[in-house]
Design brief:
- The complex is a heterodimer of chains A (about 350) and B (about 230).
- By secondary structure, chain A is of the alpha/beta class.
- In chain A, a hairpin with a 2-residue loop joins strand 7 and strand 8.
- In chain A, the strands form 2 sheets. Chain A has a 5-stranded mixed beta sheet, sandwiched between helices. Chain A has a 5-stranded mixed beta sheet with strand order 8-7-6-9-10, sandwiched between helices.
- The longest helix of chain A has 30 residues.
- Chain A is built from 10 helices and 10 strands.
- Chain B is α/β, with parallel strands linked by helices and about 230 residues long.
- Chain B has 2 domains: about 120 residues, ATPase, nucleotide binding domain (Nucleotidyltransferase, domain 5); about 90 residues, ATPase, nucleotide binding domain (Nucleotidyltransferase, domain 5, 2-Layer Sandwich), CATH 3.30.420.
- In chain B, about 30% of the residues lie in helices and about 25% in strands.
- Chain B is built from 6 helices and 10 strands; from the N terminus they run E-E-E-H-E-H-E-H-E-E-E-E-H-E-H-H.
- In chain B, strands 3-2-1-4-5 form a 5-stranded mixed beta sheet, sandwiched between helices. In chain B, strands 6, 7, 8, 9 and 10 form a 5-stranded mixed beta sheet that branches.
- In chain B, strand 1 and strand 2 form a beta hairpin.
- In chain B, helix 1 packs across helix 2 and helix 3 packs across helix 6.
- The chains are: A alpha/beta (about 350), B alpha/beta (about 230).
- Chains A and B meet through helix 2 and helix 3 of A and helix 1 and helix 2 of B.
Chain lengths: ~350, ~230
């Protein structure tokens, strides 16, 4: 089955063609980063407007690249949630109508299930069961994954998502949007010994996270060292970025180790935008190797939002016979653990 | 003979209409916030009751705006999907112009009279336009402005008595002097009127591809706050 995947849940327009036999055939991504950068964050109305301009031209590019025609598409998968309501509507309406027009099945995909399954697109995919750490701008969750659609939420952030904290710290340090990767790059220049930031909730049992206190602590440190223009000197900014990243990574590592101990699983999957963070990958691999567990993640371009993961996740459900009715359901809020198993 | 399907979800109404060999049929529901759920099933219903497949159509028309931003994109998203899938041309129709036809149809207006139509654009503004003649030709470019500016435009008209005013945009207190009744304010964009205008566009060769079809928002520069940087580097 050849599945067209569409992703429009936030500020990236992603399309992909995935074949249940041959694997990923091609994917295309248009990032709106430049559009939103001057506002310091995603402007939902502008995001929606851009999706409605870019989706069909990207599908044209995808077909041209693969040499397939419209008639070669056997099903359509689109992100139905969670995400920005207006942005989700664009991809959902186009995707559902395309499937209707072609007379093929359609499926609305859970964006985080897409992320969670993205490492399956790699040559050495993880095997079930595993623990998944979903870390992005909107989510920080630990999930016990028995199979596709069989998810038990082990813990999650009680306030800010890890990626959101990265973006907010980037703003404090006057870095461009999206700030996460820029904080990580700046942290490389920092001195690890200069500041030690608190590790939120590590002294408490359980697998929940909290990053808003750390964010405030970072803000106070920035204010304390600020020069006349309100920003510390460059080296201090780098030291703060470093201390912040170490605190976030340390917290995530401690909770992941705890989740592996608790479940007895030998596999951890990290997914979502923050899973591209090199420091996090290194530290997790090091910590979990001691427990005899292995860490899996997607290639860099599939850590952030993309159409390939939606085509893949949709394909798994479509092959199992699931499909969507003609009425389009967009779910801006959609808990992962309410998804149905495959059979 | 020409077969055209028209869709509109620019207001609380969700509507579809079909022209087939000169015969028209339409479906319309008042369904705020349910457009995504309703639209495709209504398309399927109107096609199947007419024993048509999507590929039998010559073109698809849509209410391109102005109107609710989300509503415009739901309609266009579905239209893009349908038209792209079946390689159909797409016809964009002004929702304000469609309302003029709707007003004449529903309120039995004298076709000799001009119509100034206004929709609520929120943020204390109105989308409006001034139309004349049977085909509802635009007298001025459709626009978004304060109700006060619209009142000013009306008061500057040489012959106020030859103009009828309709549409939900007239509810603003700055427009009270025009005494627009509830019935006249109740005029909404509907697919059947989009269809009538689309028919003329089709005959005139005015259509485009799914990829090139876009909404007409009118309000393009909402004052989204730009970010202030601390240090210029």
């Amino acid at each position: 089955m050849r599945v067209l995947g569409l992703e429009t849940s936030c500020d990236e327009t992603g399309v992909a063609l995935y074949d249940s036999e041959a694997g990923l055939l091609a994917h295309r991504l248009y990032s709106q980063v430049e559009l939103h950068a001057e506002y310091g964050g995603v402007v939902p109305e502008l995001a929606s407007r851009d999706h409605v301009r870019k989706t069909l031209p990207l599908i044209n590019e995808l077909l041209a690249e693969t040499g397939f025609s419209k008639q070669d598409i056997d099903a359509v998968a689109y992100t139905a949630g969670p995400g920005l309501a207006g942005a989700l509507m664009v991809g959902s309406c186009i995707g559902r109508a395309l499937a209707y027009g072609w007379g093929v099945p359609a499926i609305g995909v859970h964006h985080m299930e897409g992320h969670l399954l993205a490492p399956m697109l790699e040559d050495e995919p993880p095997e079930y069961p595993f623990v998944a750490l979903l870390v992005s701008g909107g989510h920080t969750q630990l999930v016990q994954v028995e199979a596709i659609g069989e998810y038990i939420l082990l813990g999650e952030s009680l306030d800010d998502a890890a990626g959101e904290a990265f973006d907010k710290v980037a703003k404090m340090l006057d870095l461009d949007y999206p700030g996460g990767p820029r904080v990580a790059a700046l942290a490389e220049q920092g001195d690890k010994e200069r500041f030690t930031f608190p590790r939120p909730m590590v002294d408490r049992p359980g697998l929940d996270f909290s990053f808003s206190g750390l964010k405030t602590y970072t803000l106070n440190t920035v204010a304390k060292h600020a020069l006349e223009d309100g920003l510390p000197d460059d080296q201090t900014c780098a030291d703060i970025a470093c201390a912040f990243q170490e605190a976030v990574v340390d917290t995530l590592v401690i909770k992941c180790r705890r989740a592996i101990e608790q479940t007895g699983f030998k596999t951890l999957v990290i997914a979502g935008g923050v899973s591209a963070n090199t420091r996090l990958r290194e530290r997790l691999e090091e910590a979990l190797a001691k427990k005899g567990a292995k860490v899996f993640y997607a290639r860099h371009e599939f850590c952030t939002d993309n159409g390939a993961m939606i085509a893949f996740a949709g394909c798994q459900r479509l092959v199992a016979g699931q499909e969507e009715a003609l009425g389009i359901k967009v779910r801006p809020r959609w808990p992962l653990d309410t998804l149905e198993p495959l059979v | 003979m020409t077969i055209i399907l028209a869709l509109d979800t620019s207001s609380d109404a969700c509507s579809v209409a079909l022209l087939r060999d000169g015969a028209r049929s339409s479906l319309c529901v008042d369904a705020p916030r349910e457009h995504t759920q309703r639209l495709l099933p209504m398309v399927d219903e109107i096609l199947s009751t007419n024993n048509l497949k999507l590929h039998d159509l010559d073109a698809i028309a849509y209410g391109r705006g102005p109107g609710s931003f989300t509503g415009l994109r739901i309609c266009l998203g579905v239209v893009q999907g349908l038209a792209y899938a079946a390689d159909l041309p797409v016809i964009a129709v002004s929702t304000l112009q469609a309302m003029v036809l709707g007003a004449r149809r529903e309120l039995d207006l004298n076709a000799q009279k001009d119509v100034v139509v206004a929709m609520d654009a929120r943020m204390s503004e109105v989308y409006w336009g001034h139309y004349t003649g049977i085909g509802a030709q635009a007298v001025v470019d459709e626009r978004v402005s304060s109700p006060m500016d619209l009142a000013q435009y009306m008061n500057d008209l040489a012959s106020r008595d030859d103009v009828v005013v309709v549409g939900p945009g007239w509810h603003y207190s700055d427009l009270n002097e025009f005494n627009v009744s509830a019935a006249f304010q109740g005029v909404m964009p509907k697919a059947q009127d989009v269809l009538s205008l689309a028919e003329s566009s089709w005959l005139a060769g005015e259509y485009t591809t799914a990829e090139k079809s876009q909404p007409t928002y009118l309000r393009d520069s909402v004052a989204w706050q730009k970010r202030k940087r601390i240090r210029q580097s």
